[in-house]
Amino acid sequence: MASKTVVVGQGYVGLPLAVAAAEHGFEVFGYDTDESRIKKLAVGESFVGDISDERLAAILGQGTYRPTVSPNDLEGFEIAVIAVPTPLFDGVPDLSFVEAAGATVGSVLRRGATVILESTSYPGTTEDVLAPILEKHSGLVAGRDFHLGYSPERIDPGNPVWTFENTPKVVSGVDEKSLAMVSEFYRAITDEVVVADSPREAELAKVLENTFRHVNIALVNELAMHADGLGIDVWKVLDIASTKPFGFMRFTPGPGVGGHCLPVDPLYLSWKVERALSKPFRLVQLADELNSQMPEYVVRRLTRGLDRRRQTVTEARILIIGLAYKADTGDIRESPALEIATRLIEAGASVRAVDPHVTELPDVPGLVHTELSVEEIESAHAVVLATDHGDLDYDTVVKHARYVFDCRHRLATSERIESL
């Protein structure tokens, strides 16, 4: 009989994991407290771009995947994976979702079962936060009575090359038996497993991966601002530097950072370092400051461009293309495009937005959602390309726009098209 597996959290991380496990023969219960989300999944409607309705329908039809909001359905599990959000609240890690999931799983935890945390957090979360909750609600002891480990998620939404299955999976456990059980599970559903010596090591590796990107994006974002002031094309500079075959990795500037990984995860590490060592993680703090400035910088550049065309931003009609934080996804978490829209509306502009990938529209007062058309493009005093989805008609934009501010360097620069 297939192992009963519970995946707590059916979002951008939990759903791909649940689907992969179900496709490999596990009996999967996808648990989430969001009833509307579970209702969609139950009828084969996916809201995660990497999971098609067809894949979802197949495992529903086979009976290997069952979405549920009932904690009772989790009883008797052999494997439970917690993949819930870990947001920031006023700059402080908010582990309330992990804590609630731990209490739910702990209430039905039995001897010999395995619990795995995938949610990104600071080093020590698995052993210092989750383990005590599981022990409290189950009356069992981690390592002795049940297995516990950490395996950081490495989901890259919209990436057709590196998927859940072929991205190397880091695994860890609180003891040797826990590590063996965690490794066995992921070896059954992924191509490669990478072993960490401890959950703390795996947790730090995860936040390092995202901090590396955060810091390097901050570097090129600041470079872009200074290059503009010096009258130098930063994109040509990046092209030249990228010809070096060693010692250089290309990162590109943009309107800011979004998703969960970059605006949030590095600050978990910074918070933990400052709390544990009483020292600031200065590079992380500076990177966050620089990347957070980018939406404001985009508005300043756009305002300057409008001024040159004898148009004030207060009376401008502006069309924003792309609301998601990342191309070819519908993920709007922490998206800089939303802040750009908000700032422009607060400045008095009339702002409209196009994003066919975003199905759950964000609540931005004053923002009008529309479709990309010749009429919309021609009516706009400026078009802001915030997210360069691959399936949009850029030829029409180039042909009919009066002025384009291209945050992604997707379009060839000209008198009417300006790059970040």
Describe this entry's structure for a reader:
This protein has 420 residues and is α/β, with parallel strands linked by helices. Helices cover 42% and strands 14% of the residues. It has helices at residues 14-23, 35-42, 53-62, 96-107, 125-138, 176-189, 199-230, 234-241, 261-277, 282-292, 294-308, 336-346, 374-379, 394-400, and strands at 4-8, 27-31, 65-68, 79-82, 88-89, 92-93, 114-117, 147-150, 169-173, 193-195, 317-321, 350-354, 368-369, 382-385, 404-406, 417-419. The strands form 3 sheets. It has an 8-stranded mixed beta sheet with strand order 3-2-1-4-7-8-9-10, sandwiched between helices. α4 packs parallel to α5, α7 (199-230) packs across α10 (282-292) and α11 packs across α12 (336-346). The longest helix has 32 residues, at 199-230. The chain is globular and about 70 Å long. The N and C termini lie far apart (56 Å). The mean pLDDT is 94.
Labels describing this entry:
alpha/beta; eight-stranded mixed β-sheet; six-stranded parallel β-sheet; 14 helices; single chain; 16 strands; 420 residues; 42% helix
Layout of helices and strands, plus pairs?
Layout: E1 4-8, H1 14-23, E2 27-31, H2 35-42, H3 53-62, E3 65-68, E4 79-82, E5 88-89, E6 92-93, H4 96-107, E7 114-117, H5 125-138, E8 147-150, E9 169-173, H6 176-189, E10 193-195, H7 199-230, H8 234-241, H9 261-277, H10 282-292, H11 294-308, E11 317-321, H12 336-346, E12 350-354, E13 368-369, H13 374-379, E14 382-385, H14 394-400, E15 404-406, E16 417-419
